[in-house]
Amino acid sequence: MAACAPAGGTILEIGSYKGKSTVGLASIAQHYGLGPVVSVDPHSAPAVTDFGHGSRQSSWDDFQASLRTAGVERTVEAHRAYSRDLARGWTRPIRFLWIDGDHTYRGAKEDIDLFRPHLASGAIVALHDVLHTFEGPVRVFAEELLDSDEFGPAGLCGSVGWAQYRPSDGGRWRDQRRALRRRVGRLIGFVTAGREPNGFRKLRYKLWRGFVPHAAPKAAAWVRAVS
To answer: Which pTM value belongs to this model?
Structure first.
């Protein structure tokens, strides 16, 4: 997604933790000469998505070590801050927006609201954990991306939900987005208000989740979809 986004601009990662996705994005940026990856994360604890954090107060040292080990530290512009703080002075166009920070609805909604005005035409927005039991990613993907004619092609690859920003012609993909929206929308009721589905509800959630297409697309087909 980061390599094939046809828009110009910056790759922005919201939520880095120990740097696994940062290394992936920076490796792509370094290989294709896409400029530095901007990474923002307070690297503080506790965080509901940082499983295994234990008693450690910060992931910052591990994050820096990951970049050094991969040899991409010069390709990452790291901000140890909250995304809302970075947004206050943000002026750069965005080609790829990776949202993997606060997984509450309020947090994920704030991230898309803050940086949506800076999306370049043709940019890709992707949210992690859309098919996991967090309210924020699935609701924002369904309500802010799939429900909007400002976005065109959309889909899921594993638990990553993505959509292309097409403000001039996104309506051409309305039927496809609505079909996906109906399937994704069934999951929202199972994860609202921080409720973890269990028992029979969990089985129903897994059943509906299985009907959401989320296989990895072939690279050539993906490029054709967003070209």
So the answer is: 0.94
